Amino acid sequence: MHGELKEGIKRTVGQIWSFYSGNDELPLYYGRIQKITYTQALEQDPVIKLHVGRLKATRCPKDVIEWVDKQMPVGCGTFYARKVLEIISPSEVSHQIIPRTSMDGTEYTILPKIGEVWVIYRYWSSHTDVEDLEFGLYDMVEILDDALDYKVQLLKYESVHDVDDFELYL
C-alpha cells in the first residue's frame, strides 16, 4: 500500500523514515512503516495516517559508551522495529533512510553516508539528558568521506533556540 503527499513523495509499507520529535525542527527518531490507512469524509481530502514501529537501538557493543539517559535518541548504529505502533501523519516524517538490513530482515544499521547532512551536537557527554538537547548548540555537517575516520564539511552552526528563548530560562 502506498501513501502519497501532495509533494508526490511515496511512502510504502516496510520503508524506514526519520521523523520529528515534536520539540524542534530536527528529526530525532527512525521508524518503519508497518501500515498506511486512509480515511475520507464526504467531499473532503483524504487523511493519510502512517502506523510506524519506532526503531530502537540494539544493545551497544562493550567498547561503545552508552547514554546514561535511556530516553536519549540514538543517531546511528543498529536498530530493530518495535512491535508497538505509533500513528503519525505524513507531515511528521522528514526523509527516507536506506539502512543496511540484516540477513533475517529484523535489524537495520544506519550510519552516515557520503552526501548526507547530519547534526552533531556540541558539548555532549554520555551524561547528557534528552532535555539538554533542547538548549544545545549543534553543527550541521555534510558527510564527505564515510571511511573509518569520517570527514565532514561544516554547513551551518546553530543553536536549537534563539538567544532570547535561552535567556528566559536563566
TrEMBL record:
Pfam families: DUF3444 (PF11926). InterPro entries: DUF3444. Residues 12-156 form the DUF3444 domain. It comes from the Eukaryota. This is Uncharacterized protein LOC104772075. It comes from Camelina sativa.
